[in-house]
Amino acid sequence: MKRIFITLSIIMAAVSCTNSNPFFSEWDTPYGIPDFGKIQEKHYIPAIEEGIRQQEAEIAAIIANTDAPTFENVVEAYDQSGALLGRVTSVLFNVSESDATESLQAIVEEALPLISVHSDNIMMNPDFFAKVDVLFQNIDNLGLNQEQKMVLKKLHNGFVKNGIALNAEDQERMREINLELSSLSNTFGNYLLAENNAFAEEFGVTISEYPVAMAAEQDRAVREKMFKAYSSRGNNGNEYDNKEMMVKMMALRIEKANLLGYENPAQMILNDKMAGNPETVDTFLAGIIAPAVEKAKAEIVDMQAIMDQDIAAGLLPEGSKIEAWDWAYYTEKVRVAKYALDEEQTKPYFQMENVRQGVFDLTTKLWGLQYEKLENIPTYHADVEGFKVMDADGSLIGVILTDYFPRSTKRGGAWMNNFVNQEIVGGVEVRPVIVNVGNFAKPVDGKPSLLTLDQVETLFHEYGHALHGLLSQCTYKSVAGTSVARDFVELPSQIMENWALEEELLKTYAVHYRNNNVIGKNIIDKIRRSAQFNQGFMTTELLAAALVDLDIHSLTKYKELDVDAFEYNALYEKRGMISEIEPRYRLTYFAHIFAGGYSSGYYFYTWAEVLDKDAFAAFVETGDIFNRRTAQAFRTLLSSGGKKEGMTLYREFRGAEPSREPLLKARGLWVEPEPSEEPNTENQETNNQ
């Protein structure tokens, strides 16, 4: 990919005065939506520089204040600082993920070091920290509410994790590490985007379409070729090879952890998460992957039986065995054989617009939310649509933008981000503007965008993240919405998946795109019966990625790393995984941990699934999956953001610790425990994670 580098001098020459830069004034747009129509690439760097200058002045004013430190003149003042910088970076980074032209990538590369240095200048400022620390050491005597305590704790922890206690030499090294990590992370993502596009060009299949294509491809040789190309992204020894990027990142992450007094990055990252430490995570994952692998072995037996039929028919050579590239294809055959259910039967009922309306309808049933399509609003791409979200009383909740179709400038996967964060400034509440991004099939040849069952759940999942942001009722943006511990953040998203394929909701949105027939009970029953189908594979590949992530971030010393050998040892030798399954993400295309915020944390999805399955059980136990009282209790959890610790919020909602049993049962991995020789008739505590 050709790199286009835009120099600051050129950009500054293009901007004659601040009045020409839309970031320097309030947007005259509906509901605070960024004024995308006026924003040009030349505006970003000057706005970032000015935003940095403004926040520097705001921090200087906090430090210069001769009054005794208070929460208001230190912590609150900081939380509300950097408004311009936050505004421009939220647009730049969100758009660069969704519509990344080469010139925009170059701007991101120019912006990242500026922002990294600025962040370090704040978080390593001893005078600023002195004021924060005075408050932190006296936190219980300041008359703070719970939200204020969490904001103060979070700010103080930010200083500590950025090395405020280090000597001058080590602080300088920490600055260098942070700067290099920022650059490497961006390069990793850009290389992966190039590899994804190369894959799509070679096979005519986007990364998001790959699972469906593999399930449909009859030619085994083609499947093998596609599988190997897919699983070797970033590991081809070409100009976009990510091995060097990730090895450098790991060396820097280990050094950073060591500087801060931790043995490894996993310890550093997990010490303020719900799990607390890598040992807890390892034990947690081991308790689930073992039964998952056993179930996967049984799934192989079913697939091999069908493959044997193909061998007998002369379609395959004698002795052919199920390999990793066969799984999607033969799984689909087993699904059809066992449940008379295939994607071509279900997809016509899941038109994207109807599924989106289905998730809207769900929130109406639960909380009375109302939606209004927004016309003629500014967007960063023609595919983006906008909706005003209102509460049951008609009051504004926020705006949701949806961007669901793939393009070469968009990274793979699906995600949620904020363009505007919820907060209260000067007594005025700012309501959020949120975007949901996906990579669903685009309408073609008069056929609408039709979703697979997995994609239906993905749309519901990402809207759960959106709800976490939309329903936020916090004062301070640093704890609002999804600004929570990472192993808690997936609860609001994953619980939404539980409703997606429930019969009562399906009948409201699953309508055949040709004849408008509502999905029949026979298909719904097939979907329900197949709910635990292929869960051995799906659980194993998910946890395999989490375990590789945990293991690589548990390294205590930098060393030259053979990526393939490391993965093999972590999964197949150490944990007894089977060769027919590869991890969902291999290291060289594991964007979650090398270009996102999930390092040492890919387990979050499974950890949160314990919570989401247990939380959904609270609805089921009422006899009404739309129970308004339970929904209101869960809305309290959603609206609280990071006001309290995640487990505290969960206990307040559920009235108990979460149990792992609903997750294991939902995935078909539950084994009834052996009866105790001496049964305990007293009330038993539920199983902890």
Which key features would you list for this structure?
single chain, 689 residues, Neurolysin, domain 3, 7 strands, disordered C terminus
Would you kindly provide a brief summary of this structure?
This protein has 689 residues and is mainly alpha-helical.
Number of strands: 7
Strand content: 5-15%
> How many angstroms does the end-to-end distance come to?
45 Å
Radius of gyration: 26 Å
- Give the name of the CATH architecture of the domain at 347-531: Orthogonal Bundle
Report the structural category: mainly alpha
Q: Total number of helical segments?
A: 28
Low-pLDDT segments: 1-17, 676-689
Shape: globular
Helix content: 40-55%
Q: Please identify the oligomeric state.
A: single chain
- Average pLDDT level: 92
For this structure, what is the CATH class of the domain at 347-531?
A: Mainly Alpha
Order of adjacent strands in the largest pleated sheet: 1-2-3-7-4
Please summarize the sheet with the most strands.
5 strands, mixed
In words, what does this structure look like?
Among the domains are: 8-165, Neurolysin, domain 3, CATH 1.10.1370.40; 347-531, Neurolysin, domain 3. It is built from 28 helices and seven strands. The chain has helices spanning 8-14, 44-64, 71-79, 83-98, 102-123, 126-137, 146-161, 168-203, 210-216, 220-231, 243-259, 265-270, 278-312, 327-339, 343-346, 352-367, 453-470, 486-489, 491-500, 503-509, 521-529, 535-552, 563-573, 591-594, 604-620, 628-639, 646-654, 661-666, and strands spanning 370-374, 385-390, 396-403, 415-420, 423-425, 428-430, 433-437. The strands form two sheets. The chain has a five-stranded mixed β-sheet. The protein has a two-stranded antiparallel ribbon with strand order 5-6. Helix 2 packs parallel to helix 5 (102-123), helix 9 (210-216) crosses helix 14 and helix 16 (352-367) crosses helix 20.
